[in-house]
Please model this.
Amino acid sequence: MANSISWRPSTSGKIEGGECFDSSIDKGSPFSFKLGQGEVIKGLDDGVATMKKGERAIFIVPPNLAYGEAGSPPLIPPNATLVFDVEMKSWITITDLTGDGGILKKITKEGHGWATPRDGDHVLVKYEARLENGSVVSKSEEGAMFHIGDGYLCPGLGKAVKTMRKGEKAELAVKSFYGLSENEEGKRIPPDSNLTIEIELVSWTSVIDITGDNKVVKKIVKAGQGFERPNEDSMVKVIYTAKLEDGTVFEHKGTNEEPFQYTTLQEHINEGLDRAIMSMKRGEHAEVTVGAEYVCGKNLPANSMLKYDIELIDFIKEKPFWKMDTNEKLEASQKKKLDGNMFFKAGKFWLASNKYHKASNYVEYDHSFSDDEKCIANGLKLACNLNNAACKLKLGDYLQASRLCTKVLEQDPSNVKALFRRAEAYLKISELEKAETDIKRALIIDPHNRDVRLKYKELKGTQREYTKHQTEFFSTMIAKMG
Model:
């Protein structure tokens, strides 16, 4: 975002040793101009930019920073040195939100706090949009509510709101290419119409996509306290009500006197709700929608969802690994690994991945282990990273799968499974040379491995398709150039 500034100084200017040729003081109103836009001579532009509010200064401007050899007849002769007496009254910052002059924002009332809305957040605004002739084309009588990113009214409105704080008022100058084509009555707006929009951000509600696919979405009704959130295997206390889309109560758990208590990521509740609760702070109240994909065993119709009203009362995190002795770390790692195996066999790859990640964390730093304990820890670490790579492949996180395999190969350079799974990941992200290197290494170590041989055959087919595509592409390009 680029900034320009509308300055309001009181000025008087005269030719050095001569008469006054202009004075906003005599006119009784400050002189306004936009800084850096060439609206005044360069010497005055540069000089005023150094001033503070309430400051008064004398600027002596040489001809090369004033009107030069040509002067400005009839008041200013050629090669004149000018003297300005300037008092800085005030200024207003104007922000170019798009960098192309398409949306200019001028704050008319400062907001409070530091946070601003983000894409997807639900905002309440008051606004009035006018054409250059002053006619109103759209306005909100009681306030308008919309989700940022939905394109409400015009692109300019959504872009501006993301820069505003609660209670802030601003004036927007919106060029036609960021404006609207119709007002709320459906009447056509004249083509190439620029708009002026006066807007106030009344409030907003944060909306968070928990799973990254818009299948589990949280809207914060009341912010929680502090910064901590529950993690895996935290003991949490919540109150929630689940409703179907028609408003029918589907499930209710907990009361103020006796909240529902459960352990996170142990399948005590559905995965979508579990992940949403793990994103909450103590005391937070939220509305969460969970798609059928994340609600197993509830017999919901396809493409339906549950709507949860949730309050996180309290939680106690699992004992952190740095507070455990070596025996506790090994036991915890083994337990998490077994949990991960169980979830993987059930096809619950996200849950399994979390268990494997947690299990490897317990034994990641082994400086306090004895030699025998280090041997056990290394075995756990290798198995968990390798199994987690398999989860990441199932989840489509190929980059992380390749990194986990690399960690395994740093421990065991001849691990065929790690080479095979890293090659799979490389194939998915079209790193064909790297995939070939890994598969060839695996075949040298285990030349009769059926899975590796089939993967090598798949790679060769992919390479042929890639070469054919490249040949056709360049042939077409050369033909067009000819």
About this structure: DSSP finds eleven helices and 18 strands in the chain.
